Amino acid sequence: MCALLLLAGAAGCTEPAGVPAPAPATAAPPSTPPEADDPPGSLACGKIGEAVRAGNLMQPGVITGVSASTSTADAPVADAAARLQQAYEQAVKAQGAEEEPDLVAAVSAAAAEMVSVCADSGLSSGG
Asked: Which residues, other chains included, contact 97 with Cβ-Cβ below 8 Å and sequence gap of 6+?
């Protein structure tokens, strides 16, 4: 047995007998690639369609998510999303104020306009 250990040491083996070699590091799982916006604007139009159908336009993050998905959209879709974002921000600032209902209605109108722009651009907003 000692001869085997000596031979292993002489052959360049630095691990003592009976000790397993460390397991190789595993690679992190690949991250999910972002959705392709093909044709450009289809992601934003899909998101606004979902939000309108769900009736959750005033939920935090919904309008911001629509706006964030317009980076590759054509100008009419991106402009409609910008108007929607502005209407939403005004409504949020007016929370509890007398003008809040009118500003929330403006968000709905801006969302309807964006759905119409998507349709005019040939992009489906679902449903």
From this structure: none
Mean pLDDT (the chain) is 82
Mean predicted confidence (pLDDT) in 1-28: 49
pLDDT class for 3, splitting at 50, 70, 90? very low
Where does the pLDDT of residue 74 fall: very low under 50, low under 70, confident under 90, or very high at 90 and above?
Answer: very high
How distant, in Å, are the alpha carbons of 52, 58, 62, 65, 105 from that of 55?
Answer: 5, 8, 10, 15, 12
How many whole angstroms separate alpha carbon 46 and alpha carbon 69?
A: 10
Q: Which helix or strand (DSSP H or E) is residue 38 part of?
A: none
29: CB partners within 8 A, 6+ apart: none
Instruction: Give the C-alpha distances (Å, rounded to integers) separating 66 from 6, 9, 94, 111.
Output: 69, 64, 21, 10
